[in-house]
Amino acid sequence: MGGGLGGEDSGMRLLTVNVVEELLPGPKESGFTAIDKRPQPGRVPVGELGLLGDRVCDTANHGGPDQAVYAYAQEDADWWSAEIERDIPTGLFGENLRTEGIDITDALLGETWRIGPEVEVMVRAPRIPCITFQHRMRIPRWVKRFHQAGRPGAYLKVLKTGTIAADDSIEVLHRPEHEVTIGHMFGDQDPGKMQVMLDSGVDLMDELREIAQRVAARG
């Protein structure tokens, strides 16, 4: 993959790289949650299953190669800050990466980025809010509000390992030939767009492929 679509001069970058600070009591059967992420100094190694020092407690529903890293945009955090009238410090939503200058909601499924000089990732899926997130925020009907807002952030698959750090640039390497963005997949799912995505041959998670097939069949 060559000829990046956006790099250092685009203003797209990491603001922080976050891993779990401590395990907290959670509402699920796993007993604890690793949603409490905090910024790390220096360069953080990134492997196929995520960042060194990070944890996943609910392994039945989270983690694995397709959900190795969770990214959330500062622009969306700022929107939420105004909406609920409180600060949204980096890591509050459980994100590993707080970004600036890249519209994560508009990222296409299967889009690839380079972060810093080494790491390459693929946009895999929107974050689906759960009861752990509700427990974390302690806001009535938070899961519904988060879904209605349509600013879910994205799970990323690690294609090339390496290290990343705050202020690393983000470069979009490739955007596939379809129109299904993180926002579309999370919200209004258009049958025609889903069919085009399926026909494009883009690499999809099995779960999302099944959803796309069901939606496309309604068209």
Automatic annotation (TrEMBL):
Residues 38-173 form the MOSC domain. One of its GO terms (molecular function) is catalytic activity. Signal peptide: none annotated. Transmembrane segments: none annotated. Pfam families: MOSC. PANTHER family: PROTEIN YIIM. This is MOSC domain-containing protein YiiM.
